[in-house]
Amino acid sequence: MRTQCFLVLTEHGYLRISGKQAYSFLRTMTTADMAVLAEIGGSIEALILSGQAEVIDRVTLIRTGEEEYMMITSPALHDEVFDWLNAHSTLADATGPIFTDISLSDESETLSALTLFGNASTDILQELSENALLEAPRINDLRLVRFDTVTAMVYTPKRGDKSLSDAKDEYWLFCSPSQAEGLYNALLSFPEIEIITADEYLESTQKNDVWTEAAKKEEYSYPDTLDLMHLVRLGYDFVGGRALAERLGDKSSSAQRLSEQ
Questions:
Q1: How far is CA 59 from CA 29, 195, 211, 215, in A?
Q2: How far apart are CA 242 and CA 261, in angstroms?
Q3: Most-buried pick from 90, 112, 113, 240 (CB within 10 A)?
Q4: CA-CA distances (angstroms) from residue 166 to 90, 125, 126, 161?
Q5: Do residues 27 and 143 make contact, with C-beta atoms less than 8 angstroms apart?
Q6: Which residues contact 22 (CB under 8 A, 6 or more apart)?
Q7: pLDDT in tens, 133-192
Q8: Distance of alpha carbon 97 from alpha carbon 225, whole angstroms
Q9: How far is CA 247 from the centre of its chain?
Q10: Rounded to whole angstroms, how far apart are CA atoms 211 and 73?
């Protein structure tokens, strides 16, 4: 008998960032190592910082098109992230708008995600897709797979040592809310699957993670105190970077140039 796996209807926020300057915008607004997003299907975890280097949210970025990206936000911080990004997307200097070709939209009401994780996940999705899961063309961390009557975008997240669960296999299945119910019910036909809440999912996948608890509180904190410096790219050339370099006492040439601006 296959080992148990877990199903959760995730409650994250989903933002779509598109346009010719979407890459530059995300490079400015997040701490992500953008090299990972050079190709469609690339994905990475990153931070969004305030101007004072406080962590607003820990997000996942996925490149979904030539000029299109998805940002997955924490459920409780979704509105704050959207407002923060939206305000910066319209900034201008003496010469005019800084970002002239950028579109930001909230897809949280038009997109649903089911997360399946556990050692039986791959076998279950293979069976439900009539063996199409592993045969579907894959672009980095993304693939399109048909499950019964539903076609879903399947995302396979990368988890670093800081947030590694015991589950060997984890899949996020993105589809419309109307299709999510049918897919959810189809998955429940497998006796190995146990339904868990979003909070239980976080407890299972974010082991010893300081951020998981910090995100529930109203006060802000910093990447170094939250043990999140592994999500910060070198150079500090992003919003909040100057303040973070000063906080850390970074004397690198890039940090010095940034502090002089």
A1: 11, 24, 11, 12
A2: 9
A3: 240
A4: 43, 19, 21, 11
A5: no
A6: 67, 68, 69, 102, 103
A7: 999 999 999 999 999 889 999 999 875 543 434 446 899 999 999 999 999 999 999 999
A8: 35
A9: 26
A10: 13
- Write down the domain spans for the chain: 5-10+110-196
The Cβ of residue 240 has, within 10 Å, a number of other Cβ atoms equal to 25
Residue keyed to tokens 């003496």:
94
Angle of the 241-248 helix axis to the 253-260 helix axis, nearest 10: 120
The full length of the chain comes to 261
Q: What is the pTM of this model?
A: 0.87
Long-range contacts, 97-102 (Cβ 8 Å, 24+): 99/19, 99/21, 99/24, 99/25, 100/21, 101/19, 101/20, 101/21, 102/17, 102/18, 102/19, 102/21, 102/22, 102/25
Q: Map tokens 């910090």 to a residue.
A: 214
User: How do residues 188-228 score in pLDDT, each as one tens digit?
Assistant: 999 999 998 877 877 766 654 555 555 556 678 899 998 89
Distance of alpha carbon 137 from alpha carbon 143, whole angstroms: 6
| CA angle in degrees (0–180, nearest 5) for 154-192-168 | 50
Domain 5-10+110-196 maps to which CATH number in 3.30.1360.120, 3.40.980.20, 1.20.1250.20, 3.30.457.10? 3.30.1360.120
